[in-house]
TrEMBL record:
The keyword Translocase does not apply. The chain crosses the membrane at residues 12-34, 74-92, 104-122, 152-183, 195-213, 243-265, 285-305, 311-327, 336-355. It is a multi-pass membrane protein. GO terms for cellular component: plasma membrane. This is Glycosyltransferase RgtA/B/C/D-like domain-containing protein. It comes from Polaribacter aquimarinus. It is found in: Cell membrane. Coiled coil: none annotated. Its main location: membrane.
Length: 492
């Protein structure tokens, strides 16, 4: 134990890593349930080969943790924290193949100082397992290519498949691998190696559950993830708001210093390649092959499409290793100071809720809403509850309530994976319902005054009740409109 303490004392990088992770761990019990936590917990409680909007890895992980430690918000957050901690350890191993000891220490501090690691540690999303299996894939592929250890092609195939079973973005692993081999003079030989194609075939085999689920459900998930976005991109409408919004998101996730280092070396390498036809070789090319397609590829879409803030996250793994080659001690110190300031502000917000969040993407108020909804069901017995915001309110109420809570498919609207839970809505015919509708902008305590236009098509009578007002720290913080609906008639 004394040796371990001495090592930590003499190694500032380890101290920073442990410091940031300890801060996150201490904050976990104070984090409330996020809608994403509840939705992917619902995945795990309804096991399937895959799901409508994403593959199921995050749901499986939450199911394992809650089966072992019990259902609680802390258990869900703890699962995210553990998986992200494994990603940090895997990153350290991967970075050690490319960096000297001094630069390795800077890279690991860069990683743990980012806001995106905190988000992954606190919030359940498919990106949590994606980044772990993405990093493990790169470790295996490095071993297979640079050390020519053939069995790592098999392990790499498994890891790439598991990454895809986390999120579809993982297809960029195979794209990056092929791109690296095509542009590398030294390692192009692997293109005709049977081990490469065995690895890819194995990865496809591991992906089989996702493909099979889609086959059984008319490729609904693939269509959902591609068709709408393809149509939006094909319209080619320039939007400065999307572009600058993406820049703001990336500066927040990475912090400004690391983001500008990304931009600097990206410009440097692209300029060399496009103007001087000089392409880096070996390990640098390997890192760029798993950075450029994701980071530059998605960034190039931002002027014409709203790119979500987490889409570029896989590129951060090799991007931060590249940044470790360039960042100096002064910039690293500035990054740490900025990170501490941001994390202190985050901590204060979590503990004291200083700034109201005008959105359903928040960790406050859901448990209180469930309590008030149960009271309504006591006042209006034999009613079922449903909501209409894709998944957020329904998923959160499902987490806290014993009775099943339904989504907007009750009134004939697409409801993501709620449409695939196997519910026979006709069994609800003739029943009464309580409809919960979130007032995201909450400006007053008034009733809504108008009805959702589809309610009258499915219920005989709809009466608006007094809204539910949720107080946090004695401040009125959230508002939900409530409607009592009688005699439901399903259209299916």
């Amino acid at each position: 134990m004394n040796k371990i303490l001495l090592l930590i004392k003499n190694n500032k990088a380890i101290s920073w890593v442990l410091g940031f992770q300890l801060f996150r761990l201490i904050l976990l019990p104070f984090m409330g349930l996020m809608p994403q936590d509840a939705y992917y917990y619902l995945y795990g409680q309804n096991l399937s080969l895959s799901y409508f909007d994403h593959p199921g890895m995050i749901g499986y992980i939450l199911r394992i943790f809650t089966d072992i430690f019990g259902q609680s918000v802390f258990t869900i957050k703890f699962a995210d924290f553990i998986i992200t901690s494994l990603t940090i350890l895997s990153f350290y191993k991967l970075a050690s193949y490319f960096l000297s000891k001094r630069k390795l220490q800077r890279a690991i501090v860069l990683l743990v100082s980012t806001i995106f690691v905190s988000i992954l540690s606190f919030n359940s999303t498919p990106d949590v397992p994606l980044l772990l299996f993405w990093t493990l894939s790169l470790i295996c592929l490095y071993k297979a290519i640079f050390e020519e250890k053939k069995w790592y092609w098999i392990l790499g195939g498994i890891a790439m498949g598991l990454a895809f079973n986390s999120k579809y973005t993982a297809l960029l692993l195979q794209i990056g691998l092929i791109a690296f081999l095509i542009f590398s003079n030294k390692y192009r030989k692997f293109l005709i190696s049977p081990w490469l194609w065995v690895s890819i075939i194995i990865s496809v085999g591991v992906m089989f559950p996702v493909w099979w689920w889609n086959y059984q459900n008319e490729f609904a998930s693939f269509a959902f993830q591609s068709s709408e976005r393809t149509n939006s991109i094909s319209e080619f409408k320039i939007s400065p708001k999307n572009f600058f919004g993406a820049i703001g998101h990336q500066m927040f996730l990475l912090l400004p210093i690391l983001f500008f280092i990304f931009i600097t070396f990206t410009f440097k390498y692209l300029k060399r390649a496009l103007l001087k036809f000089k392409i880096p070789e070996g390990k640098t090319l390997f890192l760029l092959a798993f950075f450029i397609p994701t980071f530059v590829g998605f960034f190039s879409l931002t002027p014409i499409y709203w790119v979500k803030l987490n889409w570029m996250m896989p590129s951060y793994i090799t991007g931060i290793i590249l940044a470790g080659m360039f960042i100096n001690k002064k910039l690293l110190k500035s990054q740490i100071i900025l990170s501490i300031v941001f994390h202190v502000l985050v901590g204060l917000q979590v503990l004291f809720y200083l700034v109201p969040i005008k959105s359903d993407d928040t960790w406050i108020g859901w448990k209180e809403l469930a309590t008030e909804t149960k009271k309504l069901q006591e006042k209006y017995p034999n009613t079922f509850v449903f909501s209409e915001d894709n998944y957020k309110t329904s998923a959160c109420l499902n987490f806290y309530m014993d009775d099943k809570v339904y989504a907007q498919n009750i009134i004939g609207l697409p409801a993501l994976h709620f449409d695939y839970l196997g519910d026979n809505l006709s069994t609800l015919n003739s029943k009464n319902a309580i409809f919960i509708d979130s007032d995201k902008r909450f400006k007053n305590k008034n009733k809504k005054g108008d009805l959702h236009p589809l309610l009258k098509d499915y219920f005989n009578n709809v009466t608006e009740l007094e809204p539910i007002i949720i107080k946090i720290n004695n401040k009125e913080s959230r508002k939900f409109w409530v409607f009592y609906c009688t005699n439901y008639q399903s259209k299916k």
